[in-house]
Write a structure and sequence with these properties.
Arc Repressor Mutant, subunit A, alpha/beta, rod-shaped, eight-stranded mixed sheet
Length: about 325
């Protein structure tokens, strides 16, 4: 025999009658017209084949059967609410997104650590029943547990534009920046490193290279549209530097030219670190010169970023405090 399931909305209305004392009061509480409420309750009675209400000219009250159905309905509606809340959690956990813009340096070397921690904290916060069967995020995006990080890689100026136009909640850059309508926080400093091939004469020096000698040496540098090059140009401007020996679009290209013995070069410490660890290039100390650039994060004015963006910001700041590499990031 096939049974018809009672309408949950009708059961909710019946419970409201019990709580508010009449059909009219229950209809008002649920923002329903009283004639519609009356029809809904009559349909429920036909479905259950029970008289649920005792109707009089003075109003309607629950019958003993109706009072018992209300008790069961409360339990059923509670379970239904659990289902609705659980589905909402699944949807929120699976589709929650945070849009981030970052320069290539930060996207390559720092953001993966931050996203990994965001993944961990998100999973730890999820209920055990959800963690046990957590779905795999789409392989086409960077997944942070059940959070998707939409990453746009761009230069520093484009990063700020994306945040200013609401296309990213956070923007990470590595050069001095100010922008109307944005909060800009310096969360660390990356040292730039002068590198040479292991057989270069500077690699055997016991004393620092004088800054004037560096300035009159043709170097391998990144192109003028990069933050690294702008930082080098600012640092050496007072020493009237000679033109570069070679310009390259990326730090990797600079390091490859340096390793081949083309000339000394200057790159960020994060980019240089793996080349130095493997002995392909050697770092050189320069006297009386601090080559560095700030690491900054921007977000729209109005307080700390909310929700996932705020969590990711907190993780980035915590990592910055404990990170160390050649040309220490403080």
């Amino acid at each position: 025999m096939t049974h018809r399931w009672p309408d949950p909305d009708a059961l909710e209305l019946l419970v409201a009658v019990a709580e508010h004392g009449s059909v009219g009061a229950a209809a008002r509480a649920l923002d329903m017209a009283q004639p519609n409420a009356s029809r809904t309750l009559r349909t429920l009675e036909r479905t259950l084949r029970l008289d649920l209400l005792h109707r009089t000219p003075q109003g309607s009250t629950l019958t003993p059967e109706g009072a018992l159905v209300v008790t069961w309905a409360r339990s059923m509606l509670g379970q239904a609410q659990t289902l609705v809340d659980g589905v909402a959690l699944l949807r929120r956990e699976r589709t929650a997104r945070v849009a981030v813009a970052a320069t290539p340096l930060i996207a390559e070397h720092l953001l993966p650590m931050w996203v990994a921690e965001l993944r961990s904290t998100t999973r730890a916060r999820a209920p055990q029943w959800y963690r046990s069967g957590a779905p795999t995020a789409s392989p086409t995006v960077t997944a942070a547990g059940e959070v998707e990080v939409d990453l746009t890689v761009a230069d520093s100026r484009q990063v700020l534009d994306l945040v200013a136009h609401g296309e990213a909640s956070l923007g990470f850059t590595e050069e001095p920046a100010r922008a109307a309508g944005l909060e800009v926080l310096t969360f660390g400093t990356e040292g730039l490193v002068v590198t040479v091939a292991p057989h270069h004469r500077w690699a055997r020096r016991e004393s620092p290279v004088p800054v004037a000698e560096l300035a009159r040496t043709p170097l391998v540098l990144q192109t003028t549209d990069t933050s690294t090059r702008r930082a080098v140009d600012r640092a050496l401007a007072a020493y009237d530097p000679v033109p570069p020996r070679q310009e390259a679009a990326t730090a990797s290209a600079v390091l490859a030219a340096v390793a081949a013995g083309r000339a000394p070069g200057v790159v960020g410490g994060l980019d240089a670190a793996p080349w130095i660890r493997t002995g392909r290039v050697t770092p050189v100390v320069v006297a009386d010169l601090r080559l560095s650039r700030p690491l900054q994060v921007a977000w729209p004015k109005g307080g700390r970023p909310p929700d996932l963006a705020g969590e990711l910001l907190g993780i980035a700041l915590a990592h910055a405090r404990r990170y160390a590499a050649p040309g220490r990031m403080d």
